[in-house]
Amino acid sequence: MDQAFPLIGRAKEYQHALAALQKRQSLLILGPAGSGKSTLIACALAALPKSDGIVLIQYSSVLHHLLIDLARSLLKGGHRTFRRLAQPDNETERWLAHQTSIHLKGILWESLEAEPRVIVLDGVASAAFPMYRFLQRLYFAKGMALIASARDPVALGALARLFWDPRNTIQLQPLHEGDANRLFDLAVARFGIGHLDIEEFRLKVIEAAKGNPGQIIEMCRLASNPMYVSGRHIKFAPLRIDVLMKFL
């Protein structure tokens, strides 16, 4: 979902996510592709006065890749304990390339237990047990919090064992029709397609998207491409097929 658009129809969810970040509480955000999980996270992070204690990582199902990304983020963020234990040279990427998973796990655990952070994992999918075992220790460490987003509980894989409490879960629901129309109008203005046959297009978009904000934005974006336009008419069928392929 395009994060340049305002967060529409998610006031309650936004307050929940913001409170979790402020209080360092673990949280799970669920919703299908395009429902606004990443946008919700970005808006909550942007509202904080500073984000020194927060590490945002795009999830990788390969544990070693996630360890590298986490280590890189801590080094860039000036995590003093990790830098002291790791003792990287001036060539950070070269140093990271020579690290083993066993070594990284050890110094990451020790560093984050001594100097906690909030770890935000965006886009969790098919987590295996080695991932679960690494994050489990951090999840229960004093002062630590884990905020994760996923399409559904099944996508969590082994991490579903951590996020079992529904009180610490946000389930993003489809937008109400009024909010969907408001988002549609913003997207029309953003992508400059107001000169086309918008009202016919609106009816088809709102019906097809079924309240999914990402799909509304993407359909309007594609409508700005001449390949989907004939005169003032937007060729909805091929446009819709391409949007569905993206959100599989």
Structure in words:
This protein is an alpha/beta fold. The chain folds into two domains: 11-171, Rossmann fold, CATH 3.40.50.300; 177-246. It contains eleven helices and seven strands. Helix 7 (129-139) links the parallel strand 3 (118-124) and strand 4 (145-150). Helix 8 crosses helix 9. The longest helix is centred in the last third of the chain and has 15 residues, at 177-191. The chain starts with 10 loop residues before the first helix and ends with a helix.
Secondary-structure map with pairings?
Elements: H1 11-23, E1 27-30, H2 37-46, E2 54-58, H3 63-76, H4 80-86, H5 92-97, H6 101-114, E3 118-124, H7 129-139, E4 145-150, E5 169-171, H8 177-191, H9 198-209, H10 213-223, E6 229-230, E7 233-234, H11 236-246
Parallel strand pairs: 1-4, 1-5, 2-3, 3-4
Antiparallel strand pairs: 6-7
Helix pairs in contact: 1-2, 3-6, 4-6, 8-9, 8-10, 10-11
Concise synopsis of the structure shown:
The protein contains eleven helices and seven strands. The protein is of the alpha/beta class and 248 residues long.
Keywords:
single chain, 248 residues, alpha/beta, Rossmann fold, five-stranded parallel beta sheet, two-stranded antiparallel sheet, 11 helices, 7 strands, 50% helix, 12% strand, elongated
- Helix tally? 11
Low-confidence stretches: none
Strand arrangement within the widest β-sheet reads: 2-3-4-1-5
Order of helices and strands: HEHEHHHHEHEEHHHEEH
Largest sheet: 5 strands, parallel
CATH topology of the largest domain: Rossmann fold
Radius of gyration: 21 Å
- Average pLDDT: 95
Q: What's the CATH architecture of the largest domain?
A: 3-Layer(aba) Sandwich
Percent of residues in beta strands: 5-15%
The end-to-end span amounts to: 14 Å
Which CATH class of the largest domain? Alpha Beta
Count the beta strands.
7
Tell the overall outline.
elongated
Q: Give me the CATH superfamily of the largest domain.
A: P-loop containing nucleotide triphosphate hydrolases
Percent helix among the residues? 40-55%
What's the number of structural domains? 2
Structural class: alpha/beta
